[in-house]
Amino acid sequence: MSLMDTREILTILPHRYPMLLIDQVVECDFKARVVAIKNLTFNEPFFQGHFPDDPIMPGVLQLEAMAQAGGILLNKTLGQPGKIAYFLAIDKARFRRVVRPGDQIRIEVVFLRARLGMSKVQGKVFVGDELASEADLMFGYGDA
Question: Where are the beta strands (DSSP E) in 17-103?
Fold first, then answer.
């Protein structure tokens, strides 16, 4: 069961296919944490070229999925309707396992702090119970 389906996500995020990397939000306390899901099929455009004989999800797109989940959390947490959370920085990025077609990734993002118009979150991507990637992400805000 989802708290937010794709239709509601599209009202918050400016991303559209093929860059929308969140299918649904399954947990959100609207203060400190969000959990989102992305179901990966072989038809994802990035699998066609990364890599054709051994398709894996690029690490930068895992970071982007964390950033999109972070954008949803910040919109709800900080009450910024009509504002876009722009990705400013990545710290402590680590990639722990490959993500392949058929995997379902669970993106968990925790709010760390907001100050001077910027916010910081910690994101993790899991496949099942295995940590696939993690990073701290910083955002600034702009008009949609």
Answer: 24-28, 33-39, 83-95
* Structure tokens that stand for 16 in this block: 């559209």
Rounded distance between C-alpha atoms, residue 144 and residue 141, angstroms? 9
Q: Indicate whether this model's pTM tops 0.70.
A: yes
With helix as H, strand as E and coil as C, how does 95-138 read?
A: ECCCCCCCCEEEEEEEEEEEECCEEEEEEEEEECCEEEEEEEEE
Residue 87 φ then ψ, to 5°? -65, 120
* C-alpha–C-alpha distance, residues 24 and 45, integer Å: 19
pLDDT tens sequence for the chain (144 residues):
679 999 999 999 999 999 999 999 999 997 899 999 999 999 999 999 999 899 999 999 999 999 999 999 998 888 777 788 899 999 999 999 999 999 999 999 999 999 988 999 999 999 999 999 999 999 998 886
Q: Does residue 15 have an active-site annotation?
A: no
- How far is it, in rounded angstroms, from Cα 138 to Cα 90? 7
Catalytic residue among 33, 50, 83, 100: 50
